[in-house]
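Data deposition worksheet. Section B asks for the primary sequence of the deposited chain exactly as it was used as input, without tags or linkers unless they were present during the calculation. Section C holds the resulting structure in token form. Section D is free text for depositor observations; keep each observation to a single sentence. Incomplete worksheets are returned to the depositor.
Section A, Depositor: J.P.
Section B:
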Amino acid sequence: MNPGTPKDARERAVLVQQVVIEYLRKRGYRSTERELLAEISKEADASYDDESRNAMMIINRSMRGYDEQPMMYEEMYRELRDWADGSLDLYKGELHSVLYPHMVHCFLEMVKRGASADAQRFLKKYGKEFMANSEKRAEELRGLMGVTSTQILQENETAKLFLNNRYELFLSSYALELLLAFLTDNPRRYLLLRILNHNCRILDHTIPTAGNLLDGASGFFATEEQKALASKEVLWGTLKEKEYIKADDTDDKDATDNKGKEEEEEEEKKPPHVEADGSLSEALVPIPKYRVGATGLENLTANTKGRVALSRSSLPSCLFYTFANTRGCAMNCVTMSADASLVAAGFQESSVRVWDYKSGQQNGTKLVGHSGPVFAVDMSFCSQFLLSGSEDGTARLWSIPLKSDLVAFRGHNHPIWSVAWGPYGHYFVTGSHDSTARIWSTERISPLRILSGHLSDVEATVWHPNCTYVATGSTDLTSRLWDLRVGDCVRVFGTHSGPLQALAFSPNGRYLAMSGNTRDIHVWDIAEGRQVQRLKGHEASVWHLAYSCEGSVLASASADNTVRVWDATTSGGGKKLLGGASPVTATANGTPETSGKADGPAKTSTTPMDTAGSTTGSAAAPAASAPTSAAAGAAFPGGQPSTSARQSQKAESPLLCTLRTKRTPAFYVRFTRKNLMVAAGAYGC
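Section C:
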């Protein structure tokens, strides 16, 4: 009988060994199984060729019970790390990018197998180098440090981000060949190869520069999606007044019918576009029209006549509402009317409170209806209606004059983190823990659109000035821009170094500012899909952003007990951009701060921001420390920095001034129609 070639003999030996291993496993002879596998591995390294080693990997796939012992993950990762450190300098940077996702997944696998203590030790030992080099990765690893059981693993947002999505790695073709050669050289490295295959996506791509649209850093970044979205047109122009204001005189309308029809026929031939003056040629979504003088639109022109044009030489004054006695009821959110006379806040005790300072009420009105903590509130432009979002998964519409809820909108199955009215009422948006945002109309109780695409909680929402788009910010470190005509995502902004909790559009609709746990403020050009400005200076999370009425100034409210005012029009070199931001990264070093004193004129009293004071009663209320103000609240002027400070100020710094409180984190900031800046926070929160 012909015994066959040596290759056939080796293959038969491999099959026999596999049968023996399966028999030992069925009988429960674990120690004998390990010894046999170790011996097979030694023989493969000593005498087998590459083809035989590949065959041996098939055998080793049946030994998962041994290979997937928790400590094996640490051993395999250590080998990968040592190999990457010893690789050629030309490819070391690319190969080092592989370490981070492998380290995280090795940690998660150890937790899955019940070795939580060993997993935590592993994470602390090997996570230090990543935390020191990247703020984004440091934030992710801090989130993983609390994962100590499989139950927490299933609920942890960072863990779900890694387990449910592929981590993108940018590797050149030769670097990929080196990596695969290392992983297949030893059958015991099957664990690492499986992580690479199941949890990573390798892109054979030259790493882009920082100035490109694509972010060259590896991570959860939808590169192909980003490329496709960059080609879509975004109509960022604002609406013309005729799109939301009704003409009072119908006779005038009849007299110009013929001329109007000719113009409409000519316009119909052209697709929607942004005109030279920055306006949109037509409204792209149905918008209810209001008569001149309607609530919220009355004396609109008169309110803008006395508006102060803000700039470096003319900084805004600020009125700050300080909420006292909030420790027992935990204030979660706050909003204001356009003239700052109405203030509404949501509390942990499931209630919403509204204060009307024109009426002189001290205790405010308590609105009860939610069955869980209220995390978001927003007031309509007419100041007649209030929206609130709660842990109970509902958004409620309240009538402020009637002091009662009108309807509960149910659709989310998880807590609602954000609610936002459309610029002209009628529509609103909610963002939830279920990773979706939903578009609603006050005429229907079911959502008009469900915006799905984020990988984690949607914590911030904001409407574009022309009502066609909505921007969302998420804990998946990205922001998305959605076209409401079809419900599709048209831009992805990110990834950033932390969750996004604050968004604001410039008044002309061209720029979107975003921030959150990143501390830095990122400004993006939505038309071109590129970041144009990064503002550094805050020392803690940024909770709210607001542009001034003409878009020349951007204000930010932060947990670091400050409200900061930024120049949104020019770069350090004086280059002007359309409506807002400049392509420069700058820090706050050397920029003067103002905290209650100013050389410029102030129109309100110079009372310190956190003067103790509260209204009577058990409910939290804004402190009454500015007696000259119609709305009782602590006031401080923005003013101009002193002469010596102006001389030392760097001309290119975009930070105009910093307004500090004593112990009050700033929850909210906005500008009135006359460009008075108003802000609010809870004392000692």
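Section D:
Residues 421 and 428 are 4 Å apart (CA to CA).
Residues 61-67, 206-217, 580-619, 624-650 have pLDDT under 50 and may be disordered.
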